[in-house]
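Worked example 2:
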Amino acid sequence: MRLIGMYDSPFVRRVAVTLNLLEVPYEQSNWSVGRDFDRIRELNPLGRVPTLVLDGGEVLVDSATILDYLDEFVGPQRALVPRAGAERRRILKLAALATGAAEKGALQVYETAFRPAERRHAPWVERCAAQMHGTLGALERHAREATGAWLVGERLTQADVSVTCAFTYLCEAVGAERGTHVYPALAALATRCEAMPAFRAAYAAFFVPQPPS
C-alpha cells in the first residue's frame, strides 16, 4: 500500500498511525497539497490527502473511508472499531468530533497563513475557534469521565488515535491548549499515545506555511 500525504496533517497521520498499530506494511509518498497538487489530483481528483493506493491499484480517498477499509482488511478481532453496537457508535462519534475540531483548526491556519491581513475576517476566525474549543471541551469531559483504560473500554480504539492526532495538531498549529483553555485529560491521553512507537513513527512537527510571495 502507498499512503499519499504528509504526517503534519492530522488526517494523514491518523491513517498512518492506524497502519502502524495494525502492522500493515505501507510506503509513504510525502506529498504536499500545495507543492504536489497536480500529482495528487492524478490519483484523487479532489487533490486532497490522505489518499491510499492499494496493492492492486485501487485508490481510496478520505481518512474515514480508508480507516473503514483497514478495519475490514485486518478483520474484526484486530479492527480499531467494532462492526456494530453502542461501542462502535461512541468510537465513531468521538473520532468525528476530533476530526471536526481539527478541520476548524486548519481553517484558522489557512485564514492567517494564506489570506492577506487586510482581507482576513476576524469574526470567521473567532467562530472557528469557538467551534474548536467547544468540541475539545466535550472531548475533555468524555476523557475525564471514561471508566475504562481508554476513551472507550479497555483497549485502544480509533477514538484514541483520532483524538490524539487531532489534539497534538491543534496544540502545535493554533496553540489550542494555552491561556484559559487547558485540557488536562486530553493532554494525558496524548502523552500516553505519543510515547507509543506507532505514533512516534508517524510524526512530523507542524509548521505554519508561509504565503507565496
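The radius of gyration is 17 Å. The longest helix spans residues 86-114.
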